[in-house]
Design brief:
16% strand; seven-stranded parallel beta sheet; Rossmann fold; globular; six-stranded parallel beta sheet; 15 strands
Length: 434
């Protein structure tokens, strides 16, 4: 069913065409008609399937029929980056309407946000902590909110926002509809849904634990002290137009970004030590293609939609299988294709086995014939070098299966210079916009 046939306002249908939303994704096709009836929804879907437009389009349609200059809808999301992204999509969809959108997030001045509230922004996108700050100062501006959206609800609860969410819900006396979107559905989310949703429609798209279709996965066994040299080797010898690298800590992200930059790659970083302006500049530059590589902590693993990411590299094995699924979901967005590599040390094999059980498949192990697994590595503590003991996989050849073998064939025999080079442009991939 095309967007026009869903009964959406003509201004919204025009915006979907201009934003190249050619046809609804499965979550949009299921959620939008139900949301338009005013019914509560609890929805799960794989990351990168278009959940944002699935709740924004019916909300905007609803608000257009109401008197303006009053806040009517509130979207809650766990992080500033996700809030900014939702705000961007909302501005695009509402471009041909008179509706105003306000963004309430921490790390930014209160003044401009208070001005947006006084002006009567009809839709607000917020993080829980900053929203409560505004509610304490001026509760009455939220007394006419009809629609509440909890986006990435499982992540909000993981981050300890459950008490804040309950306080916020209690301060919305005019709430008529609640839409809960979550990538996973643990028991605590089910319990919350029973408390705040009224006779919700349940919508489920795709296998909850499965990565998105189109992602080619592989594991690279390597000792811990050779992970950074292996990342450098992959960047030099594989065709990687746009790369997102995850590290476990912000200190590791900073160190790795400096090392990659010293090799001449255009690189930026994203972690909690950065100010909001620094985070915005990093994300905007990566989206534009100014940077070939983004090194980030798990702050970038949920919901961030950058169209052109061709490769995701996990510098470490996540402790939680769901974190792995969300990390690799940053590539192959909206039915495109992408590669996801995880570097696994001997001590991380058990965690990788848990991930493999979670996703229902064993990742092919790749050992590179042109990488020195016994190379000397500087010892930062004592200022000398030592030889690595190496780590060889029992399956040191190409991974089984035609699809998963293609990354091994991409390695180049010729070596690039380590001197600075211009950043790659975003890779054009076969895709459908959400």
């Amino acid at each position: 069913m095309p967007f026009k046939a869903m009964g959406l306002h003509p201004s919204l249908v025009q915006a979907t065409r201009e934003m190249r939303y050619n046809e609804p994704t499965p979550i949009q096709a299921k959620a939008i008609p139900v949301a338009l009836t005013g019914r509560d929804i609890i929805a799960t879907a794989q990351t990168g399937t278009g959940k944002t437009a699935a709740f924004l389009l019916p909300i905007l349609h609803h608000i257009l029929a109401l008197p303006r200059s009053t806040t009517r809808a509130l979207i809650l999301t766990p992080t500033r980056e996700l809030a900014q992204q939702i705000d961007d999509v909302c501005l695009g969809l509402a471009y041909h309407t008179p509706l105003r959108v306000g963004l309430l997030v921490g790390g930014a001045p209160m003044g401009p946000q208070e001005k947006a509230l006084r002006a009567g922004a009809e839709l607000l996108v917020a993080t829980p902590g900053r929203l409560l700050d505004h509610m304490r100062h001026n509760q009455r501006r939220f007394d006419e909110v009809h629609v509440l959206v909890l986006d990435e609800a499982d992540r909000m609860l993981d981050m300890g926002f459950l008490p804040d969410l309950k306080r916020i819900v209690a301060r919305l006396p005019a709430r008529k509809q609640t839409l809960l979107f979550s990538a996973t559905m643990p028991p605590v989310i089910v319990k919350l849904a029973k408390e705040i949703l009224r006779d919700p429609a349940t919508i489920h798209v795709g296998q909850r634990s499965a990565p998105a279709v189109g992602i080619t996965q592989a594991a690279y066994p390597v000792t811990e002290n050779l992970k950074t040299p292996l990342v450098r080797h992959l960047l030099r010898h594989m065709d990687m137009p746009s790369v997102l690298i995850f590290t476990r800590t912000k200190q590791a992200a900073k160190r790795l970004a400096r090392t990659i930059a010293a090799d001449g790659f255009a690189v930026t970083e994203l972690h909690s030590n950065l100010s909001q302006n620094q985070r915005n500049r990093a994300m905007e530059g990566f989206r534009r293609g100014d940077f070939q590589v983004l090194v980030a902590t798990n702050i970038a693993s949920r919901g961030l939609d950058v169209d052109h990411i061709t490769h995701v590299i996990s510098h470490d094995v996540p402790h939680m299988p769901d974190d792995y699924v969300h990390r690799i979901g940053r590539t192959a967005r909206a039915e495109a294709e992408g590669d996801a590599f995880v570097l696994v040390s001997p001590g991380e094999e058990k965690s990788l086995a848990q991930i493999e059980r979670h996703i229902g498949q064993r990742l092919p192990r790749i050992t590179l014939p042109d990488f020195d697994y016994a190379q000397p590595v500087p010892d930062r503590r004592h200022g000398h070098v030592h030889r690595s003991s190496g780590h060889r996989s029992s399956n040191s050849g190409r991974p089984a299966g035609d699809k998963n073998s293609r990354q091994d064939s991409r390695h180049r025999d010729s070596h690039r210079s380590d001197s600075h080079r211009a950043p790659s442009k975003p890779h054009q991939k076969r895709r459908r916009r959400n």
